[in-house]
C-alpha cells in the first residue's frame, strides 16, 4: 500500500486517512483532543510506559490537515501553552553561600537524588533560574532532574531530557538510518543543564557527578518511563567552556555541530556552532540502538 505520509516512524496510508476522516464524520461532536485519543487507541499507539502518544498524534493530525489529506473539526478551545505561560520559579530561598574550597574527599559524602515529580523539584527550578547562565526552562517530554547534596546543602543540579531528532555527528557515530533513529531515539538522553553552585570550588566534582549519574540514569529512566537509556549526549559552547569535566568523565567529543540548530527546517546556518559530546552506557550500545545491523 502506498505511503502518503511518514511521521515519527509511522507510515500513513490512504486507508489510515480514510479511517481518520471516518471517525470525524461519525463523531461530529468530538474535539481534536478526543479524536487524537481515540485514534491512538485504534492504532494501539502508545509510549513505552503504556500512555497514549496523544501529543505526537495531535501533531500528526495537524500536519495531515495542513497537507489537505484530512479535514479536522474546528477548534473548540485554545488551551494555554503550559510551557510558554509557566510562571518563573520563585526567588531562591537563602542558602549557606559560604565558599567551599576543598578536595572531593573533604567535601564529605555526596547524596544524589532524582527529583522529577518529587517535593525537591521546585528547588531545582529555583537554583537553575538563579545561577545557570541559561536560566530555567521546563523540559517537554521525557526528562529527569537531579540534585546533589553535601553537608545538608544542595551543591549541584543536572537536567536530562529527550534527545534532539537530527544530529548528523551522533547519527554517524551510531550508524543508524533515519527510520531506525525515529524508532529508537527515545533510548538516548540529552544533558540540557549542568550547574555547580558558584560558591562550590571542588576539583574533580563535576566529572565525579557525571560518572555517578551515568551509572544510575538508565535505571531511573526505566522506573519513570518504562524503558532504558543506552547513550548520553550534550552540547558545549566552546566560546564559554572547554569541556574538561566531560573529558575527565570519559565522554567522547564528536566535533562541532553545523550551526543550523537541531530542529532546523532550512539549510541556513544561523546558530552558534557547538561541540557535541556523547557517552555510551554499555559496550554494545550500537546493537541496542540499532538491533537490525
Summarize the structure.
The chain has helices spanning 14-26, 32-43, 54-66, 104-107, 121-131, 168-174, 178-184, 205-214, 217-225, 244-248, 285-289; strands spanning 3-7, 10-13, 100-101, 110-114, 143-150, 153-162, 188-196, 200-201, 231-236, 252-256, 275-280.
What brief labels describe this structure?
Aminopeptidase; two-stranded antiparallel sheet; about 290 residues; seven-stranded mixed sheet; single chain
Folded structure, characterized:
With 293 residues, the chain is an alpha+beta fold. It folds into 2 domains: 3-66, no CATH class; 102-289, Gcn5-related N-acetyltransferase (GNAT) (Aminopeptidase, 3-Layer(aba) Sandwich), CATH 3.40.630. Helix content is 33%, strand content 21%. The protein contains 11 helices and 11 strands.
Task: Give helix % range.
Answer: 25-40%
The spatial strand order of the largest sheet comes to 4-5-6-7-9-11-10
Rounded mean pLDDT is 87
The helix tally amounts to 11
The CATH topology assignment of the largest domain is: Aminopeptidase
Tally of separate domains: 2
N- to C-terminal distance: 26 Å
Supply the CATH architecture of the largest domain: 3-Layer(aba) Sandwich
Radius of gyration: 22 Å
Strand content: 15-25%
Largest sheet: 7 strands, mixed
Oligomer kind: single chain
Q: Give the strand tally.
A: 11
Helix-strand makeup class: alpha+beta
* Uncertain stretches: 81-85, 262-266
Order of helix and strand elements from N to C terminus: EEHHHEHEHEEHHEEHHEHEEH
Helix-strand blueprint:
Blueprint: E1 3-7, E2 10-13, H1 14-26, H2 32-43, H3 54-66, E3 100-101, H4 104-107, E4 110-114, H5 121-131, E5 143-150, E6 153-162, H6 168-174, H7 178-184, E7 188-196, E8 200-201, H8 205-214, H9 217-225, E9 231-236, H10 244-248, E10 252-256, E11 275-280, H11 285-289
Parallel strand pairs: 3-8, 7-9
Antiparallel strand pairs: 1-2, 4-5, 5-6, 6-7, 9-11, 10-11
Amino acid at each position: 500500500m502506498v505511503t502518503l505520509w511518514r511521521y515519527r516512524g509511522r507510515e500513513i496510508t490512504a486507508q489510515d486517512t480514510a479511517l481518520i476522516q471516518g471517525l470525524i464524520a461519525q463523531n461530529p461532536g468530538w474535539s481534536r483532543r478526543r479524536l487524537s485519543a481515540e485514534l491512538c487507541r485504534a492504532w494501539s499507539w502508545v509510549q513505552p510506559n503504556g500512555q497514549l502518544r496523544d501529543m505526537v498524534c495531535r501533531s500528526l493530525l495537524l500536519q495531515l490537515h495542513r497537507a489537505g489529506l484530512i479535514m479536522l473539526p474546528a477548534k473548540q478551545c485554545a488551551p494555554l501553552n503550559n510551557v510558554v505561560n509557566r510562571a518563573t520559579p520563585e526567588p531562591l530561598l537563602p542558602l549557606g553561600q559560604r565558599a567551599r574550597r576543598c578536595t572531593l574527599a573533604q567535601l564529605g559524602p555526596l547524596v544524589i537524588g532524582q527529583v522529577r515529580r518529587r517535593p525537591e523539584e521546585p528547588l531545582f527550578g529555583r537554583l537553575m533560574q538563579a545561577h545557570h547562565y541559561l536560566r530555567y526552562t521546563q523540559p517537554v517530554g521525557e526528562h529527569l532532574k537531579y540534585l546533589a547534596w553535601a553537608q545538608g546543602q544542595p551543591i549541584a543540579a543536572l537536567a536530562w531530557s529527550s534527545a534532539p531528532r537530527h544530529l548528523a555527528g551522533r547519527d554517524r557515530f551510531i550508524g543508524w538510518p533515519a527510520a531506525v533513529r525515529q524508532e529508537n531515539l527515545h533510548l538516548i538522553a540529552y544533558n540540557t543543564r549542568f550547574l555547580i553552585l558558584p560558591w562550590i570550588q571542588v576539583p574533580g566534582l563535576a566529572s565525579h557527578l557525571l560518572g555517578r549519574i551515568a551509572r544510575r540514569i538508565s535505571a531511573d529512566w526505566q522506573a519513570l518511563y518504562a524503558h532504558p537509556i543506552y547513550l548520553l549526549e550534550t552540547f558545549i559552547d566552546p566560546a564559554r567552556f572547554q569541556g574538561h569535566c566531560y573529558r575527565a568523565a570519559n565522554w567522547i567529543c564528536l566535533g562541532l555541530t553545523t550551526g543550523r540548530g537541531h530542529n532546523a527546517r532550512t539549510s541556513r546556518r544561523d546558530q552558534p556552532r557547538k561541540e557535541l559530546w556523547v557517552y555510551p552506557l554499555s559496550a554494545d550500545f550500537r546493537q541496542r540502538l540499532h538491533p537490525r545491523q
